[in-house]
Amino acid sequence: MAGMLALLGPVVALGYLANTIRRHAKKSTGLEERSTTSSAGGGAAAYETRKAVDEYVQFHFGADDDVMPYAAGPRSALDFPARCAALAERHCTALQDFNGEGPAPTALDIGCAVGGSSFALARAFTHVLGIDYSHAFVAAAQSLQAAGSTTYEAVVEGDVRRTFSASIPSDIDRTRVRFEQGDACKLSPELAAFDAIVAANLLCRLPDPQAFLADCPRLVKPGGVLVLVSPHSWLPAWTPKERWVGGYVGADGAAVMTTQGITAALEKDFELVEQVDMPFLIREHARKFQWGCSNGMVWRRRA
């Protein structure tokens, strides 16, 4: 699909993106005007709107001063997708094959949204696959891959909006990346194992996160790495309470935290090699932002 969009050109590619968003947006729910920073619910449909695409294009590719124009703001939270990719790059032993004798390194960006981490991973990994459940996000990522740049709208205040531009950095080989729609809870059994997987701000937006975690040993090569980054924002609108990995009180009255649940699910097949705070920032309008601090965990697949 990305190759077809490239042949059609950026204008047609953006038209394809707009048509895809219209096809999958849930117009009857009022979600088209709701920010993705809202905790009001909406489930996966919240990521099929034009507003969601615009917010995430800015989140992933917006210029620093466009996202956070204030010197007093938390600028260390910018470039979140690239920082997630850097965790994988730092710990992936397949990238340490300086003789070039091993196979080309591969990476999976699961829950890729509009592709920020996917493109960042392409700096180091020869083959990168980005998968997201949102048709609108995948269409936006494919359009960006084809054209290299796009425009998006951001709210200034109320009904006042401004158009910005965003682009893929010129040092990134966009042909290394491909995107497809898919379900992280039901990934294709035909997927080969990867040297690195990045799952950024995904886990607590899945309807069955345990199913995804149970599938991870199959998807990561021995010695490969799994980068799990999550704010642990569990909400019934996305995940039924009985499937939460953490954030609940057990039958014995003790609190079960998400890091405990992840560890219980992965420690048999993986070793925890790094844990780090990962701040992120999403602009809602010119004077309101969502600042969050996800927990980053890097797990190495046992041989």
Report on this structure.
The protein is of the alpha/beta class and 303 residues long. Helices cover 29% and strands 28% of the residues. Helix 1 (2-8) crosses helix 7 (135-147) and helix 2 runs antiparallel to helix 7. Residues 1-13 and 25-29 have low confidence and may be disordered. It contains 9 helices and 11 strands. The strands form 3 sheets. A 7-stranded mixed β-sheet has the order 5-2-1-6-7-11-10. Strand 3 and strand 4 form a beta hairpin.
The amount of helix comes to 25-40%
Low-pLDDT runs? 1-13, 25-29
What is the mean pLDDT? Answer: 90
Instruction: Identify the overall geometry.
Output: globular
Structural class: alpha/beta
Q: Give the tally of β-strands.
A: 11
Separation of termini? 36 Å
Q: Over the alpha carbons, how many angstroms does the gyration radius reach?
A: 19 Å
Topology at a glance:
Blueprint: H1 2-8, H2 10-24, H3 50-61, H4 64-67, H5 80-91, E1 106-110, H6 116-121, E2 127-132, H7 135-147, E3 149-157, E4 160-167, E5 177-181, E6 194-200, H8 209-219, E7 220-230, E8 248-249, E9 255-256, H9 258-266, E10 270-285, E11 288-301
Parallel strand pairs: 1-2, 1-6, 2-5, 6-7
Antiparallel strand pairs: 3-4, 7-11, 8-9, 10-11
Question: What labels would you give this structure?
Answer:
disordered N terminus, 303 residues, seven-stranded mixed β-sheet, two-stranded antiparallel sheet, globular, alpha/beta
Quick take:
The chain is of the alpha/beta class and 303 residues long. The protein is 29% helix and 28% strand. The chain has nine helices and eleven strands.
